[in-house]
User: Fold this.
Amino acid sequence: MNSRVLPLYATIAIFLVAYLICYLQFPAMLSTRVIGNLLTDNAYLGLVGVGMTVVILSGGIDLSVGSVIAFAGVFIAVMLRDTGLHPLAVFALLLAVTSAFGAAMGGLIHGLAMPPFIVTLAGMFLARGASYMLTIESVPIDHAFYDVLRSYYRMPGGGRLTLIGVTMLLAVVVGIILAHRTRFGTAVFAIGGGAQTARLMGVAVGRTTVLIYAFSGFMAGLSGIVFSIYTGSGYPLATVGTELTAIATVVIGGTILTGGSGYVFGTLVGVLTMGLIQTYIVFDGSLSSWWTKIVIGVLLLLFILLQKGLLILGQRQRSKMT
Amino acid sequence: MKEYVLGAAFAVLSTGAPAQTIGFSQIGSESGWRAAETTVTQQEAEKRGIDLRFSDAQQRQENQIAAIRSYVAQGVDAILLAPVVATGWDSVLEEAKEAEIPVVLLDRRVDSSEDLYLTAVGSDLVHEGEVAGQWLVDNKPEGECRVVELQGTTGSSPAIDRATGFRTGIEGSDDIEIVRSQTGDFTRSGGKEVMESFLQAEGGGDNICALYAHNDDMALGAIQAIKEAGIDPGDDILIVSIDAVPDIFLAIAEGDANATVELTPNMAGPAFDALDAYLTDGVAPTKFIQTESALYTQGDDPMAEYEARKDLGY
Assistant:
């Protein structure tokens, strides 16, 4: 068996076991309502997670996404309040802005050979500051089209399969195809394995890097749109620290932080695991909600150890062969 | 067998009983008052035999929305919500309404339509200021009274409302005059600093008859400044403030402060009562339930009030 798939299997197994435990304690957890909620409540996180997975697969990191989501929400709210533009036009404009923002960061990372950590940290402050420039208070979004965007399909059992939940699932499918089935995806994995080697393989490292961060910016923008539908407002203080949550879901999803190995599908499972822990804590009602963070911390540690273990195992096997 | 019958009898009795399980989505624990509100809510629930499901949103609206959705999925009987922001609650409140789960807002309001929630419980900040002003009118010494005011954070709604209320309270008493008014940012250190400058500007404090502080913390800071200036707070300068945190009762007991107006952390008590009336008898409450702004002075056994409050988490 390919040992690279092992973290993905571990992720899926943990999710299923966790769900089983939840179900045994609270049978209501296995209802279409809870499943619908898991998808809806975590839609924005899943979207940004797909972008983050691609970035991490390339060995990079994008710290700007949380701020970009907040910026997106504020941008949409202010544009809809102050101009007569249709939401779809505002969305298109926004996605162009966030993609360009990501591309610019990618360009700096490659052009100046700067660590992605620093460049996207600057991007994080920039985007957060820009949202404060637009407004300092939460701006409600009151547009008839938003009611359409909030539509849902009622599943048997009363659960709601919302448009934003479906958007997230579709984005995961697109992410899977992009990362595992296209030339771009191969280039991402190659860069993650080592930029020097990738260059020798004939990968256009510069172009790919710009595209990777543009994609992450695009997904963050899309996540911001979904978040604005979710909360019906734009708030410059929203989603502080979401970039770190996104990174955590990617790692729990079985992607190796140093890049070159991982699965977009795993990130979806990571996001759902995180949502499941949160739901469990609310269902229980007596645990402090900070337990979410503790469990995430333990899971992260577990996956880092697992990855390290696999790495050592792989090296041993290789040395045996020679 | 006997036990079984008894059990069945209880089961029959308990149907149609008031709310059993109530979810409470709290903003977080950013201030002492907020922590006390959480503690009091849990105590009130226990008193009534309610199974309270508590969720701390850590200051994030998305966590609150997710928690409310989970409560709906769980099928709780009612939901308490202390919203972190005013906007963006429509769709989740609609979902609760559709599931016929009443939602009661605590302490803060939302901008959603009123039919999406059962009622809102909160204090009237203007009224708090009025109570403080009225106290001064009733208790000031004979003759002209020059008042200094320590305001809350500039532009914040408690600062604006408590200033307005106080002015309404002293209206008609022509011998009371607010001579100086400045922000102490709701903090102890701010209160002390500003009070020092007030004392210097007003002849070392001889010309000041009373201090009105928008919260107890600033009053406590000011008391320190007054003492350091060699004046007797509580006698030479009357001190009235708002909030009723435990420490102000110590000051009142020692005669350093005169009166405080309570911003009660017990928003849940009236909420549970309203829910009880609604769920058992179908009585819909008014859309806003104002909590009492009780006045505490040296005659109200301040040490007992201190003891009652000191473990609430302030």
Q: What stands out?
A: Residues 3-321 of chain A form a domain with the ABC transporter involved in vitamin B12 uptake, BtuC fold (CATH 1.10.3470). The longest strand of chain A covers residues 152-154. The longest helix of chain A spans residues 291-321.
